[in-house]
């Protein structure tokens, strides 16, 4: 059983380094207690690095990411630093494409005690996963769309190869959730097949995969209706799978259901590599003040441990991933040590220390 793991760490821009530091400390402490070893390798990338060097993702960092067992990536980008075409610096998208991280995993959980803008019925829980295809779709021509004086064009691409991998991943996740009692084994394909041929193709490929899993159930939903149902009845969902741009938008809506991006982790997973990062941005307006919310970064680290544990059949890693998630959720639910975005006054370090204390108490 593999018990030594190389983690490529991208500290990011703005508040990125501030939320990465305590996350790495928590991960290192867990590894020391449980007997496996994590080696953290710092990698340069991002808007600040681009402003200094003209490179947003140096080749050395790309090579380190390729060689790593997992990639922990913090908030990237600064609104004031852009490429010549006016778009923001986004090495995370480059990593998704180069490493073919086709499955963007965005969990949405509303647990007892968590504040939410929803008026949930009594005893109702929300626990679903949105899977966003992360390498093509409407992001396919990122950085190379056509712009003339009178019009601009971007190309949406959906391929059989990537979609089949995506749908296989989605049904596999639904089966895992059902086996663990976390879901009912249901997958929803979110598209706009009533308007676009590309999405009719997407739906056909989904149905072909669904037929391979008679032990699971599936259905379809148009993206506009799904946005409505996220607000009206989010407890109905288990696993959803959709195109890149649709997933980008719906994942932020899902974060809103949980109370904000500060508690929204994510993973981008391929066949051989995976990146784990918070869904939020770099918040340069509060950078350096020590008040950034570290919870989404910590929860992303928990997802990394669970993924490594499943991939390498390491029970200690899986157990620590669950422990770190439960401890973070316990702090959020208890509500006395929250950062400003969640209505509290805690500093970044205080929030991270509260998670550490919760780990010891579980």
What distinguishing features does this structure have?
single chain; 362 residues; alpha/beta; ten-stranded mixed beta sheet; two-stranded antiparallel ribbon; 12 strands; 42% helix; globular
Provide a descriptive summary of the structure in words.
It is built from eleven helices and twelve strands. The protein is an alpha/beta fold. A hairpin with a 4-residue loop joins strand 11 and strand 12. The protein starts with a strand and ends with a helix. Helix 1 runs parallel beside helix 11, helix 7 packs parallel to helix 8 and helix 9 packs antiparallel against helix 10. The relative contact order is 0.16. The longest helix has 21 residues. The model has no long low-confidence stretch (mean pLDDT 96). A ten-stranded mixed beta sheet has the order 2-1-3-12-11-4-5-10-8-9, with helices on both faces. Strands 6-7 form a two-stranded antiparallel sheet. It is 42% helix and 18% strand.
């Amino acid at each position: 059983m593999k018990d030594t793991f190389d983690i490529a760490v991208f500290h990011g821009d703005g508040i990125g380094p501030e939320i990465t530091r305590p996350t790495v400390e928590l991960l290192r402490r867990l590894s020391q207690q449980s007997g496996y070893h994590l080696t953290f390798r710092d990698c340069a990338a991002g808007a600040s690095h681009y402003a200094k060097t003209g490179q947003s993702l140096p080749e050395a960092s790309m090579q380190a990411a390729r060689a790593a067992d997992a990639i922990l990536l913090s908030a990237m980008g600064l609104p004031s630093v852009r490429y010549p075409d006016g778009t923001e610096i986004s090495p995370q998208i480059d990593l998704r494409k180069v490493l073919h991280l086709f499955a963007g995993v965005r969990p949405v959980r509303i647990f007892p005690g968590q504040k939410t803008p929803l008026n949930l019925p009594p005893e109702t829980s929300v626990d679903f996963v949105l899977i966003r295809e992360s390498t093509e779709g409407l992001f396919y021509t990122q950085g190379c769309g056509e712009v003339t004086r009178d019009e601009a064009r971007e190309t949406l691409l959906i391929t059989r190869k990537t979609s089949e991998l995506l749908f296989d991943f989605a049904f596999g996740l639904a089966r895992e959730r059902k086996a663990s009692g976390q879901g009912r084994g249901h997958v929803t394909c979110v598209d706009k097949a009533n308007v676009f041929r590309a999405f009719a193709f997407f739906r056909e490929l989904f149905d072909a995969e669904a037929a391979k899993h008679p032990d699971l159930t599936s259905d379809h939903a148009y993206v506009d209706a799904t946005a409505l149902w996220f607000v009206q009845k989010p407890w109905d969902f288990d696993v959803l799978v959709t195109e890149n741009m649709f997933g980008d938008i719906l994942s932020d809506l899902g974060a809103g259901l949980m109370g904000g991006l500060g508690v929204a982790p994510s993973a981008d997973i391929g066949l051989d590599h995976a990146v784990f990062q918070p869904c939020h941005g770099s918040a340069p307006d509060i950078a350096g003040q020590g008040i950034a919310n570290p919870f989404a970064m910590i929860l992303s680290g928990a997802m990394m441990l669970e993924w490594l544990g499943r991939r390498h059949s390491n029970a200690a890693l899986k157990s620590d991933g669950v422990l770190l998630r439960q401890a973070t959720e316990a702090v959020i639910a208890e509500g006395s040590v929250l950062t400003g975005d969640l209505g509290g006054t805690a500093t970044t370090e205080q929030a991270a220390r509260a998670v550490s204390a919760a780990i010891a108490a579980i």
